[in-house]
Amino acid sequence: MLFNSIQFIIFFIVVTLAYFSLPLRGRWILLLVASCYFYMVFKPVFILILFGTIIIDYYAGIWIEKSENQRRKKLLLIISLISNIGILAFFKYYDFGRDSVNAILASMDIRPFVPQLTRLIPGPVAEWMTTGAGKVILPIGLSFHTFQAMSYTIEVYRGNQAAEKHFGIYALYVMFYPQLVAGPIERPQNMLFQFHTYFKYDFEQVKQGLMQMAFGFFKKMVIADRLSMMVDYAYHPGTEHNGLTLLVATIFYSFQIYCDFSGYSDIAIGAARVMGFTLMDNFRSPYEARSIPEFWGRWHISLSTWFRDYLYIPLGGNRNGEFMKYRNQMIVFMVSGLWHGTNWSFVIWGGLHGIYQVSASLRDKWLKKANITIPDNAFIKAFNIFLTFMLVTLAWVFFRNPLGRSVVILKSIANLSFSDPILSPFNLTEMCFCVFLIVFLLIKEHYYEKIPTRNTVLFFVLFPVISFLTYFLGVMTENQFIYFQF
Fold first, then answer.
1. Which residues are bridge partners to 130 per DSSP?
2. Given 3-state DSSP classes, what are the helix, strand and coil percentages for the chain, each rounded to the nearest 5?
3. How many whole angstroms separate alpha carbon 131 and alpha carbon 483?
4. Distance between CA atoms of 140 and 39, rounded to whole angstroms?
5. CA 49 to each of CA 39, 145, 170, 218: distance values in angstroms, whole numbers, following the listed order
6. What is the DSSP letter of 136?
7. Preceding amide of 112 cis, omega within 30
8. Nearest in space to 475 (alpha carbons), one of 153, 225, 283
9. Which residue is catalytic, options 145, 241, 340, 353?
C-alpha cells in the first residue's frame, strides 16, 4: 500500500481511531493485523517469507538468552544471521550473481551455465517468485526488515536487549506498518518496550505527527514527483541531451531522491507519533553538510548507524591503525552500495563515497600535521557546503543510472556549454516553479527543520494549508517511493 494514495489515508484514519479505542492487550493485535494487511496489498504471498524469518529470529533470541554456553550462543546467532542474509541474498542477488558470472564466462568464450531461476524451480513456486521475464521478484522492503531483524538477535547476543517472550509483540517489531517498507531501521531497545506501553491520546503528539505527515506528503507529491518528470525526461535510455540539460536533471535528482525518501520517513515517523510511538529521525538537513562524513551523519541515519554498529566497529573500526581504518571505511561503503542495489553502478556509488570518506580523513590528517587551520567564516562554510553537495550529486548519477549510461551522462556534463538550451518537459514557468520549490525547501529546513505545532491556532492554519497545497500542486499519479525497490 502506497503512502501517497487515498487507500492509505482511509487505512490510517481507521487504524488510528480503532487503536485509541482499544485497551493495551488489544492494540498489538490490531497493529499486527493492520501491518499484515498493509504489506499483503503489495503481494500477499511474500508475507510467508517475512513470518518464516520472524519465527526463526524469535526462537533464536530466546535460546541465545537462555544458553550459558558462549559457543552455542554464537552458533545460534550465526544461524539467525545466515537465515536472514541468505533469504535477502537469494531474492536480491540471484539474478545479479547469475548475470555477472555468465558475463565473465562469456568473455572467456565459455558457455554460460548459471540458469534462470525458473529452470531450477519449475511450476507454481517459480511463478510467484519471478516476473514474466524470469527475473526474481524482490519482496517489498526486504532489505529494511532484514536489517531490523538482524539488529534484534545481535543485541540479544550482546546482552543489550532482553529476548522478547511475546511472539505477537516481536512480530509487530518487525512488521510495524509505518516503517515496514522503507524504514527507519529501528533497534529493539527503542521499539520493543513501546509496544508494551499504553499511550494515552495526546493532542500535542497528534499535532506533531499530523504536521510531519503533511509536510512528508508535500515533499513527496509536490517536490519529488514534480522533479522526477525532468529527471526521467533527461535520463531516459536511448535519448541524447546536451550537458547543461543533464546537469540540471542531475541536480534535480539530488533533491528528488531526498524529498522522496525523507518524505516517506516523515510520513512514517508522523503516523507512528500520532499513536504515541517515537521512531528515530532519519534525515537532518543533509544538504547543509560541510563534509562527506557530516553528510552521512545527516542522511539515512538509521542505515549509516546500523553499518557503523554492526559492520564498521566489528571489523575493528579505527582501533587497529590508519590503514585498517581506511580499509574498514571502504568495506562499509562498498557493502552499502551492494545493499542498495543489484547493479555495478551501485557498487561504484558506494566506492565513491568510500573514497570521499577516506580522502576527508587524509585531508584532516595532513592539515593537522601541517598545523594549518582553515578559517570558519561564512565564505568557507558556503564553499564546503557547495563542494559536498556537488560530490554527493556526482555520485547520485551512478545511483540513478546503469554504469554505461552514467559514463555517457558524466561525459556530456563535463563538456557542457552554458550557451546550450535546457531541454525540458516543462515550460519556463514550470521550470521556475521547480527552482522555487528547491529554494523553499532549503530555507524551510534551515530555519524550521520541524514545523512548530505548540500553537494550536497555528496548527489549524498550517495543516489545512499544506494539505490543500499538496492536493492542488501535487503530482497525483501515486508514484512509487524510490526506496521501495531496495
1. 136
2. 70, 0, 30
3. 20
4. 8
5. 12, 11, 16, 33
6. B
7. no
8. 225
9. 340
User: What amino acid occupies position 110?
Assistant: I
DSSP result, 20-55:
HHS-HHHHHHHHHHHHHHHHHTT-GGGHHHHHHHHH
Distance separating alpha carbons of residues 168 and 161, to the nearest angstrom: 17
Question: Helix 403-414 crosses helix 243-274 at what angle (to 10 degrees)?
Answer: 120
Closest Cα to residue 205, out of 266, 268, 278, 147? 278
Whole-number Å distance between alpha carbons of 60 and 55: 8
The total of other beta-carbon atoms located within 10 Å of residue 379's CB is 8
**Residue 353 bears catalytic tag:** no
Per-residue pLDDT of the chain (486 residues; tens, 9 = 90+): 788 888 999 999 999 999 999 999 899 999 999 999 999 888 888 888 888 899 999 999 999 999 888 889 999 999 999 999 998 888 888 777 777 777 777 777 777 666 666 666 666 666 666 666 667 777 888 888 899 999 999 999 999 999 999 999 999 999 999 998 877 999 999 999 999 999 999 999 999 999 999 999 999 999 999 999 999 999 988 788 899 999 999 999 999 999 999 999 999 999 999 999 999 999 999 999 999 999 999 999 999 999 999 999 999 888 888 888 999 999 999 999 988 877 889 999 999 999 999 998 888 888 888 887 787 888 889 999 999 999 999 999 999 999 889 999 999 999 888 888 888 998 899 999 999 999 999 998 888 877 777 788 888 899 999 999 998 888 877 666 666 665
Comparing CA positions, the residue from 352, 322, 316 lying closest to residue 334 is: 352
Longest dimension (CA), the chain: 73
How many residues are there in the chain?
486
The amino acid present at 471, given as its one-letter code, is: Y
Half-sphere exposure in the Cβ direction for 393 (13 Å, CA): 22
Sign, CA torsion 328/333/334/340: positive
- The closest of 442, 433, 394, 5 to 226, measured between CA atoms, is 433
Identify whether the C-beta of residue 463 lies closer than 8 Å to the C-beta of residue 456.
no
Calpha distance 226→291 (Å, rounded): 28
> Is residue 239 exposed (0-12), middle (13-18) or buried (19+ Cβ within 10 Å)?
exposed
- What are the start-end ranges of the H helices in 108-123? 117-120
- Find cell 527503542 and name the residue: 190
- The dihedral built from the CA positions of residue 56, 61, 66 and 67, taken in this order, carries a sign that is positive
Q: What is the distance, to the nearest Å, from the Cα of residue 325 to the centroid of all Cα atoms in its chain?
A: 25
